[in-house]
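Readers outside the structure-tokenisation community will struggle with the description of the input data as it stands. For illustration, here is how one protein appears when written out as sequence plus structure tokens:
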Amino acid sequence: MDQVEVEDGTPRLRVVTFNVLDRAHADGESREKVVKAGLAAADADVVALQEVMRSDAVDQVRDWFGPDVTAIDHPQGSPGEVGACLVSRHPVGAVHVLDLRTEFGATGLPWAGAVAAEILAPEPIGTVMVVHHKPSWQLDREHLRERQAVAVARFVEDLASDRADLPVVLMGDFDAGPDTASMQFLTGRRSLDAMSVRYDDAWEMRHPDDPGHTFTPINPLVRAGQMPLERGRRIDHILIRAGEHGPLLDVAECRRLFDRPDGGVWASDHFGVLADLRMPPHPPGTWARPRAD
């Protein structure tokens, strides 16, 4: 796949995270048509999907993207269950899996974990490690999400700490808003378990004054679902790992997807998040060369 450019002509890597909602709920067949069209229009290079069906009878990934993509599933209890999948239109290098299903007493989600894949994007972007993270979902389990956030951060550090030039994108349905301990840890606002990391939040980089809720009662599927008193949170995130001098990728654009109905049909109870990532004007940790006027 050729490198796609943002409006100013700069090459970019377009990434999307989207919880599609189990097709067993809310007239899944109608919603699938909206999702397929919306994902095609988004034209993303890498997509992290949650609550997606992958079975012999129903394979939403192949239906939506066709055969010419690489699909990497999260570990899960039984084949054919609803789960999580990372989809890449670019070639994929090494893949690593962190299984969180039984860690720390986690229950209720047979596909909790993280998948880290080296996406071999064209230059000048080059190789990017994309990590698809899915922690525990329950509202009262933030203590588990804290420990899972630390585990995925250590997982990434083990894979990338000796590769200073490797950008890392961490994304998915984190089931946690920016004010929670797990997200404050990941975004460098606090330490946990004697560890600190820093991931820049793509939404905050482009919309610092907009809460950008992705799970909100504005969406009637939220009101009709299992959390009828939900007040609205931004729980679907795209994060870029930063080192001492900042992240190795800049955010050219970040916006929500599926945040309005299509022909009266809402795609999911979540809104998706899309980010266009590009190289910074010069490498972090260096000074720009003076311009010759």
